[in-house]
């Protein structure tokens, strides 16, 4: 057995990790726009990247390095270094060459696509880095784009034999979130003595039910990145405990991203059960979290369950109105052909929808497949943010 | 050879077809909410319906009739008769039993899902029908829901031998449009001497490049219906001429639906070429027309070509930033690795985007596949309309 308890200082929660944010003049008004994560010893790395075929230069750069250990990640906001071809990769090399005391440094970028990296500013910014700083919060602010709040989390895992390890992370992401994937960045550090192959295995597995289960707008970015760095300073490790702690870190940050979804006012869990298999349940849950008609109904606090039924039917999976069941939290509005949606029920459901968090459940009544996805509403603010993101 | 010329009176353009709209009190303020299309002789029927598995009672009713000739379609707005199970079909039978002088009558509905048909009102409304009326315009108004304008069109086709036939239609649709499919209804009548098998073949083929090439929000309704009725009163027919006239009817109405897309201010053609094959070109074109980030950029008149590149990359088809080319009308902003998007070009593109109609072209540079899709922008008005559609 083991205990997982909340801890402090995000990506610096583990001994030996350092981080900070600085201002390089990429954002207006002197806001922080560059961050680093530094480790005083070499780390194993596990990674998950966007599935977008136009993946950005930082991802190409990472992948060209093969298998390696690192002690440094440089992150910038405001510019994605995407659609920049070979020049984009050369820009990264040029920037990273100026960083001192780094081994196989990694770069990660988020921002506008199709504009060359302002490398002079970034090189100047990197000179401001102080590797002795342990300011995870400052780093988490520097990587924000349209995020309205910074995102970090840490846990301490106590094993039964008295040993313990730490895991913590910072992340950004508020739109273009569908992280099969969409600009979200997440950097996780740990001092657990996790074997390299189990790092990647755990990261892949946990991504499915966390970052790949959320959606703000169904769009998929060129830059999505999740990196897990392990310096193994603690000798403690337990496979199950590590995976659970990793899940807690990623689940928390994934939900923070939805909660901070551009213009979002509600966080909705789509719980799909009774599908033919888990894959079909996932298709339905994601179709619901992506549907514009469902999202605008959420924004209007309108318990328009017909749109939910319609979206299930349109998703292409095996389903039938004779076996479908739909509930808002614990209020069942439609049960295998029976309508429970009278005026009184409508009022009750409208009250559920006024909450900041609630669950829409769809039981397809076909098999044993299940999946939970997380989404938000879409309102005027989303339009406003995205209609003039560049300006 | 043949000539296709604009004509009048929509669904009543062909001899022997009658139509009108009446008010049955389903809509507020006495607006017309029921329509009929009547033929004084029996017609062959071809049909295309939604792919939504929760397809509505009127579609089930139609499909239960097997192969048949008809002379009557009854259409109501405000209630979709969807998710209403067997009771929904019984309601249709009960309504249609009260209609006089009809052979194998068809019913078609659009509106809110999951509410039983107000059949008493509809039965009373049907009593107001006057089968001698030839008011296509009135019928086209009665079937509107969130449409802001009525949609009808007609053509006369003159063949070289001096003979001629007519084809005309009414349609509704403004949201939930992705008519693979989404509540759009379209009723087409013709007096052409078209053989039954060629009717269905032509309808299927033309649907692909018209109603199945448009998108307002990517959602797919339970009720989408396209019906083609042929009374064969004219002895004229030419396969190519008929197919072209049918295309003109459906293409016009499809674009009218996008133009009337909920809250839409722009009609955008997505021209995709150079894909591996036509299917992959279609995937990309539809991904672009469905992307929230692209749609909000259109609304903001922001030539954010990076979102276009990103959406192409996220669509899952074969593509590469080294072979991709992107243009706004005839302004090329990105050509196989070369960025042409400086400040001056941005201003020029922004001017293109201020137009009501323009084309975004993506050449994937891989193969010979091509497809054109049609979409619109997404602004505050879409949110407003859909956040309180029911109220």
Describe the structure.
- The structure is a homodimer of 391-residue chains.
- The first copy, chain A, has 391 residues and is an alpha+beta fold.
- Chain A folds into two domains: 2-259, L-amino peptidase D-ALA esterase/amidase (4-Layer Sandwich); 267-387, ArgJ beta chain, C-terminal domain (Ubiquitin-like (UB roll)).
- Chain A contains eleven helices and 15 strands.
- Chain A has helices at 57-63, 85-97, 119-126, 136-142, 196-209, 239-259, 278-290, 292-299, 305-314, 343-353, 380-387, and strands at residues 2-6, 17-22, 34-49, 70-76, 106-109, 151-159, 164-172, 185-190, 225-230, 267-275, 325-328, 331-335, 338-339, 357-363, 369-376.
- In chain A, strands 1, 2, 3, 4, 5, 6, 7, 8 and 9 form a nine-stranded mixed beta sheet that branches. In chain A, strands 13-12-11-14-10-15 form a six-stranded mixed beta sheet.
- In chain A, helix 5 links the parallel strand 8 (185-190) and strand 9.
- The longest helix of chain A has 21 residues, at 239-259.
- Chains A and B meet through helix 8, helix 9 and helix 11 of A and helix 8, helix 9 and helix 11 of B.
């Amino acid at each position: 057995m083991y205990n997982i308890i909340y801890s402090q200082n995000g990506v610096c929660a583990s001994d030996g990790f350092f981080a900070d944010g600085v201002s390089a003049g990429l954002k207006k008004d002197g806001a922080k726009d560059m961050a680093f994560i530094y480790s005083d010893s070499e780390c194993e790395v596990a990674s998950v990247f966007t599935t977008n075929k136009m993946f950005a230069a930082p991802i190409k750069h990472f992948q060209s390095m093969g298998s390696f250990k690192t002690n440094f990640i440089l992150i910038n906001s405001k510019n994605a270094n995407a659609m920049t071809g070979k020049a984009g990769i050369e820009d990264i090399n040029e920037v990273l060459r100026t960083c001192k005391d780094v081994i196989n440094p990694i770069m990660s970028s988020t921002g506008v696509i199709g504009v060359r990296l302002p490398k002079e500013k970034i090189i100047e910014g990197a000179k401001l880095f102080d590797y002795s700083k342990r300011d995870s919060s400052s780093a988490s602010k520097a990587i924000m784009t349209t995020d309205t709040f910074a995102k970090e989390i840490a846990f301490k895992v106590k094993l039964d034999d008295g040993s313990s390890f730490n895991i913590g992370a910072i992340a950004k992401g508020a739109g273009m979130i569908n992280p099969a994937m969409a600009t979200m960045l997440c950097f996780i550090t740990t001092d657990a003595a996790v074997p390299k192959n189990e790092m990647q295995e755990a990261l892949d597995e946990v991504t499915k039910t966390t970052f790949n289960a959320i959606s703000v707008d169904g769009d998929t970015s060129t830059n999505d990145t999740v990196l897990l760095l392990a310096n193994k300073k603690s000798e403690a490790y337990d496979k199950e405990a590590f995976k659970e702690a990793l899940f807690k870190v990623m689940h928390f940050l994934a939900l923070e991203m939805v909660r901070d979804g551009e213009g979002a006012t509600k966080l909705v869990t789509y719980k799909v059960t009774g599908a033919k298999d888990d894959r079909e349940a996932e298709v339905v849950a994601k179709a619901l979290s992506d549907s514009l008609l469902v999202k605008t109904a959420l924004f209007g606090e309108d318990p328009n369950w017909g749109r939910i039924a319609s979206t299930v039917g349109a998703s292409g999976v095996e389903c039938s109105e004779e076996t479908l069941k739909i509930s808002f939290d614990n209020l069942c509005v439609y049960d295998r052909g029976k309508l429970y949606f009278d005026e009184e029920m409508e009022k009750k459901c409208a009250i559920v929808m006024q909450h900041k968090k609630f669950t829409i459940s769809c039981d397809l009544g076909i098999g044993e497949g299940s999946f939970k996805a997380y989404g938000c509403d879409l309102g005027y603010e989303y339009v406003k943010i995205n209609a003039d993101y560049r300006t």
